Amino acid sequence: xxxxxxxxxxxxxxxxxxxxxxxxxxxxxxxxxxxxxxxxxxxxxxxxxxxxxxxxxxxxxxxxxxxxxxxxxxxxxxxxxxxxxxxxxxxxxxxxxxxxxxxxxxxxxxxxxxxxxxxxxxxxxxxxxxxxxxxxxxxxxxxxxxxxxxxxxxxxxxxxxxxxxxxxxxx
Length: 171
Hints:
alpha+beta; two-stranded antiparallel ribbon
């Protein structure tokens, strides 16, 4: 049991510490506005292929995520983004990336805690990775019954949208 606790308690505490550092990370990003502004201006110029000082929807589409929020950051509804609107969109995308990371870390911590609590499974050597609510399980299990139980537990955890099982049966 001690080994089991060490194996899953340490990653759980690690995930919780990562979550605790997110506010500091966000503060650090907001304190670094000068660098962010320079980076945003540079990226704006790269995307502004026709050099008119605005981004059309097709120009914005070449940056991941920007096309999805284009209409919501186009404050004056002129179907193009000014530098200020683009910068607002960049901030929104950065905030979403931080929120997604926090959500995935929390989901991973919940999964590890749920697996640790279950006496029917041996979680030694089981790896859990989460991205956008999609969980990848990998490692070695003693039986198909144990693998099924792990999948069942993981599927019941809040935040899990899909489970990809790469668990391997020990010989």
